[in-house]
Design brief:
This protein is α/β, with parallel strands linked by helices and 337 residues long. It has helices at residues 11-21, 150-162, 194-205, 238-249, 282-293, 308-315; strands spanning 7-9, 28-36, 55-60, 63-66, 73-80, 87-96, 101-112, 123-130, 137-138, 178-180, 190-192, 222-224, 234-236, 266-268, 278-280, 318-325, 328-335. This is Phage tail protein.
């Protein structure tokens, strides 16, 4: 049984494909597909064709890609929207961006209704061409002209899921991020797992529980603004310290003492000073007392002299001389008053 439906590379298309494989050759950009009714009968595609037998509609390709199973197969897809129709489809033509018919095919005839006829559907037409080198064909389309069929959406989702074209999450933008069980990491690009959070939580729960501070140990303490407290378990705030400081600063400023007013004064050990701006120390007072205690009391009339005879001799109150009374000579003490 002979093949009824087939795709043929046109003579012009073969020449362009061959030129594209040469060093420095220009890639072919396939971008348009046309649909024809074959003039009322199923046509037989020929390499010499430059156009369809009877074109009824054309549009930008919805998709062009390399076949998943056969690397040298290129699949071109056209989607006819529901609102377009009212014609039979028996032939397809694939054009490049220069308007050259690259490949032509016939297809099982099918009527494409339009909505006004009471029935409408999106019709997908695919053409597969075999090339010696896929590198000779530009596999890209104008995405603004694409109609999102279910297959197209599924393919794009599958492609996206398998790709790594996902933005990473940052501190400012949402995105994908890698999970981490680390509890000692400083990373800002990883996300902690519940396991990591639980580990950190359990570690924190097992830590030392703070105790109150005292005058003999460190600990936590409550702050206080009081300036008249005698507490040994509260800590003064900077506000309390400032209040006390300002109060002290506003108090009476000490001045020098004089014989007429109270004040601050310098101490002195001197016992022979005539200063009226110095104060005698206990040492100076003792020295003066000892000196006074060593002197004779005026109102004792000599009664407090320890050795009165020696004192009398010292001051010349008693002398000895050799005199003769009644022819009796000898030494006699004479008191001089």
């Amino acid at each position: 049984m002979s093949t009824k439906f087939k795709t043929v590379i046109t003579t012009a298309g073969a020449a362009k494909l061959a030129a594209a494989t040469m060093p420095g050759g220009k890639k072919i950009n396939l971008n348009v597909m046309a649909v024809g009714d074959g003039g009322g009968k199923l046509p037989d595609p020929e390499a010499g064709q430059t156009q369809l037998v009877n074109e009824v509609w054309r549009h930008t390709l919805n998709k062009i890609s390399q076949d998943n199973r056969y690397s040298n197969y290129i699949v071109a897809e056209l989607v006819i929207p529901p609102e377009v129709g009212g014609f039979w489809m028996r032939e397809l033509g694939l054009y490049d961006d220069e308007g050259t018919l690259i490949a032509v095919a016939n297809m099982a005839e099918s009527y494409k209704p339009e909505l006004a006829e009471g029935s409408g559907r999106a019709q997908t037409c695919r053409m597969v061409i075999i090339v010696s080198s896929v590198e000779s064909v530009e596999l890209s389309i104008d995405s603004t002209m694409v109609m999102a069929t279910q297959d197209y959406v599924d393919d794009r989702l599958a492609e996206h899921e398998k790709s790594r074209r996902h933005p990473d999450a940052t501190l400012k933008e949402k995105g994908f991020t890698q999970l981490s069980n680390a509890t000692d990491s400083e990373s800002e690009t990883l996300a902690a797992t519940p396991k990591a959070v639980k580990t950190a939580y359990d570690l924190a729960n097992a830590k030392y529980t703070a105790q109150d501070a005292t005058t003999t140990r460190k600990g936590i303490v409550q702050l206080s603004n009081a300036t008249d407290s005698t507490s040994e378990t509260l800590a003064a705030t900077p506000k309390a310290v400032k209040v006390a400081y300002d109060l002290a600063k506003a108090k009476y400023t000490a001045q020098d003492a004089t014989t007429a007013r109270k004040g601050i004064i310098q101490l002195s050990n001197a016992t022979d000073s005539t200063s009226e701006t110095l104060a005698a120390t206990s040492k100076a007072v003792k020295a003066a007392m000892d000196n006074a205690n060593g002197r004779l009391a005026k109102n004792s009339n000599g009664g407090d002299i320890p050795d009165k005879k020696q004192f009398a001799r010292t001051i010349g109150a008693v002398t000895s001389t050799n005199i003769t009374f009644n022819n009796a000579s000898g030494w006699y003490k004479i008191a001089t008053v």
